[in-house]
Amino acid sequence: MAEKEPREPGGSDGSELGPAARQMRAAEPYISAVWKLVGGAVVGVLGGYWLDKWLGTAPWLLVGLSLAGISVGFYGFLREMARLGKRK
Fold it and tell me: How far apart are CA 46 and CA 20, in angstroms?
């Protein structure tokens, strides 16, 4: 019976990981892309809300920065998806 070679801990091939961990590692680039979309929107909304409260211009900065944040987040999301499509 042939003996298996010992695996080195921390290998980059993912062979030491279980099936769920391998799936999570494979999904990580997509999760990162979604966080770019969500993060841009959240930063725009919160920044607009805070500036409106501070400057008393409600709701105009909230609307403007929300649209800007959503646009920037969507751009980052599409760019990341295009980069992932080229990689495969």
Answer: 35
